[in-house]
Write a structure and sequence with these properties.
By secondary structure, this protein is α/β, with parallel strands linked by helices. The protein is built from 13 helices and seven strands. A five-stranded mixed beta sheet has the order 3-4-5-6-7, with helices on both faces. A two-stranded antiparallel ribbon has the order 1-2.
Length: 279
């Protein structure tokens, strides 16, 4: 097939890559037959200048018909963006990821620094590790977290760390700062983070442990992945304090209140169980 150039969300153009689309479908555990079918359908409709978002919608639509758990996993990037419009659900989500890594967690905690007080998105403690986490949430496709964010996070951390070290009960704690974002990080942002010892986690970064890899490792998919819930129902569930797919299984009464139809509730629960590999 000749090169067809497609347009990314950033406005950049690049050749369509069958292998890249294949890998994204393999990542969500779609079967070889489904992958071949999706690839054939997408390639049949490829046009010069087509947007990556159009290719995503086509692939997602086909997965939704043939493999709902695969479609839910495939929608992960957009599902994370649905944890808005405020960043609070994303902060709770990051807190749950940290719990799965063995941390005791406090979300939206006011922490005094030497100069001013700071509202820290997540504070995590594990043994002698004391971690400040800044969550940077974006709900616009193509937006990246740049070096200005890394600089801002480091400045807040240094003010807080100085105060922590002055506490009588401080002992031999090791202080860390993490920046977690639901989108990609610019190279300047990651270079600065490495230079100052900041842990940076974003979409596909670091290569072996990006946000999507952590979600898969701990099976902590956001409820916004679910294909049988509409946008309004997802927002209602988030407003009730639910954020993970597993929260739905733990709170069937809330799901019933928002979805209404018992048959629909059962279908959502089955989809959730299949996504979490319980069923």
């Amino acid at each position: 097939m000749k090169n067809v150039f497609i347009t990314k969300a950033s406005g950049e153009r690049e050749p369509f890559s069958e292998e890249k689309l294949r890998r994204s479908l393999q990542r969500v555990h779609a079967s070889p037959n489904v992958i071949d079918t999706v690839l054939a359908e997408v390639e049949a409709e490829l046009e010069e200048g087509m947007k990556t978002s159009d290719i995503y919608r086509k692939a997602f639509s086909m997965l939704r018909k043939k493999d709902r758990p695969g479609a839910a996993r495939y929608s992960l990037k957009s599902a994370l963006m649905e944890l808005g419009p405020t960043g609070r659900p994303f902060e709770r989500f990051v807190g749950e990821l940290m719990k799965s890594e063995g941390f005791a967690v406090e979300v939206a905690k006011i922490v005094p620094g030497v100069c001013v007080k700071h509202e820290v998105d997540v504070v995590g403690t594990k043994g002698d590790r004391h971690v400040m986490v800044e969550c940077k949430f974006h709900n616009q496709v193509g937006t990246k977290s740049d070096v200005k964010i890394s600089l801002y996070v480091q400045a807040r951390f240094e003010d807080i760390e100085r105060r922590w070290k002055k506490q009588p009960e401080h002992g031999e704690k090791f202080h860390e700062v993490w920046l977690v974002t639901n989108t990609k990080l610019t190279s300047d942002a990651t270079d600065y983070a490495k230079c100052v010892g900041m842990t940076a986690i974003g979409w596909s970064y670091p290569a072996a442990g990006g946000l999507e890899a952590l979600i898969e490792r701990h099976n902590l998919h956001p409820l916004t992945c679910l294909t049988l819930l509409n946008r309004f129902q997802k927002q209602e569930l988030l407003s009730e304090g639910l954020v993970l797919c597993k929260d739905i299984l733990d709170s069937p009464d809330i799901l019933q209140k928002i979805v209404g139809s018992p048959a629909r509730v059962d279908a959502v629960i089955i989809e959730t169980q299949r996504l979490l590999k319980i069923l």
